[in-house]
Amino acid sequence: MEAEDVAQETYLRMLRLRDATAIEQPHAYLYRVATHVVRELGKKEDAQAKLPLRLGEELADLLADHSPEDWADVQDQLEHLDHVLERMPPVYRAVLILRKQAGLSHQDIAVQLNLSPHTVKKYMHRALAWCREQWRTEHLP
For 4, 31, 54, 103, which has the most beta carbons within 10 A of its beta carbon? Predict the structure, then answer.
């Protein structure tokens, strides 16, 4: 995690404040925002660092148990999933990726995207429903 990344993300979040005049202690608020950014970026780095290791172990297990034909089918499904995600509304995709790939909580996603936790939860449900519907209508077994 780079200090520049923390500073930039903190600055962007401060710019997105709806009513900066309502903050009674700006220095304390700035410190709190920066602390949250450090925590979130740390979680992302941890998740990204563990991902290749977990995937490598899972991949080795899968390779032992499946034929090349099975792998071709898996590749087709992954390409289809990428296509579905590319066409998903951007805010749904952002929520889904932050939750499933980065491992952020609904609260952390809400802070990052400047949404309420309730809206994040609603968008998460809609993103999953979008994926299911697109998969059913486009993917031929």
Answer: 103
